[in-house]
């Protein structure tokens, strides 16, 4: 075919390269960490942060700092910022992978029943007074709940080992409604004290961050953050539809189960330690797709980096905007995420009709 | 030599309805086989057996079952569906590069060269950087044709290309360009099986025509033998006149009413 149609310059897909995107996002993440660990009631300058971090390695202080600053950084700020980074990375990379799997840019980890299952289990553990694991009882229950509801949604959507993604969306809606009813029943039965705990868990917070919570969520979320990008080529192929991907030799069924498992583990772990935090999983991949294009090889790692950065900054805002009080972070991500998402939608619509 | 595709006694029943009944067919190297028939005659069902979407016995593609998994078969067999969704704004070049997935764990510079060359073959070289969602339906179809070319490119040995109505959304010139391209591939030894709706395109370009009627093979022969007014009336329930093409040595079919 020698004659092509006359092509206009409109609709050109000129985008920054993958290496540049990931370098810039890594820089932003490091910047956000330094800013967040230094901000709060006790201020710590970036140079002091570096000195405190290097002190255990025997490096003499580059900049003088006092013991209180070191204690605040090690015991309070660093676990909290790292937990925020982990949870944000897990939510965003899971959102990006699910949007690819469902071939729908509006898919979100919540659709798989992860959050609602966790919320129900958390409410159950509070109202029934399950304290077998001490302070870890609630996160452990939430994690178990997220896995059970995801497994239930996946099993309802599968037929002879194959997952039907449309059925999965519908099953997710049904399981979400069921879990919502159960959570409603628990809030109805709860005492005022219990009600407060349930409500605050539902609004999300990184306030409970300690090194043990960071270390318990770390392996599960890193599994997702590093494992999901390995499915990038399969996700690219899946944009052609499941048959189209199978024609390219992609083991579609295995890839789907792998993605569902990794998403359930990383989001389940995040929800367990930080409660339900909305919009990160939806907005971050959406924004990055506009900036760097839909290629999952870049989109998935970029989502992890930007999700981590945004949740760190959101948490920084949550604990400083009304200090000494803390605004629940779930309120902030929804308050900022929803209008921004609407703005993105309008922009995309305008670009398409232009 | 064994044929590229061999179907023997294939019957496919869904809810008591026989979509395919005792179908036999072979596809040889360098052959363009056109599959014709009215809507619901079983053309797409037959194609789905050949792509491996429906795993059945009696269907042999490149010496094995049509539904065997893995990238080995994908380097030798490519399929172009009637319609391919475009849920995300991939560039045209990235879309064609999807065809290189069975060839290695990551896209190399060579893969990009292959993708550009394949875009050139469908007349869309200048569109490499465009967002696929801004292309017309016909242009998108040609991009996906280029993707299947990229998928088969450089594979040593036998190759099969399965096309489901590749000309459906194309203008006259591109319909012929697409079938000329299919003929070029046949010249390179690729076996091409194409579901077509235009009898004259089949008459002009196909080596053999397989006429399906209610899930049964009515005839499978060169166009001169297969495309008679009797066969066409039996297959489509429509009267036609068949004459000689004034310039080309192939049948010309026109509606009689």
From TrEMBL, chain A:
Q: Name one GO molecular function term.
A: transmembrane transporter activity
Family as reported in the entry's similarity comment: Belongs to the binding-protein-dependent transport system permease family. FecCD subfamily.
> What GO cellular-component annotations does this UniProt entry give?
plasma membrane
The reply on keyword Ligase is no
Any stretches that span the bilayer, and where are they? 20-44, 81-98, 110-130, 136-157, 169-189, 209-230, 257-284, 325-345
How does the record classify its membrane topology? Answer: Multi-pass membrane protein
Q: Which organism is it from?
A: Deinococcus soli (ex Cha et al. 2016)
Q: What is the lineage of its organism?
A: Bacteria, Thermotogati, Deinococcota, Deinococci, Deinococcales
Is Transport set as a keyword in this record?
A: yes
The name under which this protein is listed is: Iron complex transport system permease protein
Q: Could you tell me which PANTHER family the record lists for this protein?
A: ABC TRANSPORTER PERMEASE PROTEIN MJ0876-RELATED, FERRIC ENTEROBACTIN TRANSPORT SYSTEM PERMEASE PROTEIN
TrEMBL record, chain B:
Q: Which NCBIfam families match?
A: PRK13548.1
Q: Which UniProt keywords apply?
A: ATP-binding, Nucleotide-binding, Translocase, Transport
Listed GO MF terms: ATP binding; ATP hydrolysis activity
Span of domain ABC transporter: 5-239
Pfam name, any one:
ABC_tran
PROSITE patterns xrefs: ABC_TRANSPORTER_2
Q: Does the keyword Iron-sulfur apply?
A: no
Question: Is Oxidoreductase set as a keyword in this record?
Answer: no
Q: Which domain of life is it from?
A: Bacteria
Entry protein name: Iron complex transport system ATP-binding protein
Q: Which InterPro entries match?
A: AAA+_ATPase, ABC_transporter-like_ATP-bd, P-loop_NTPase
What CDD domains does its record include? ABC_Iron-Siderophores_B12_Hemin
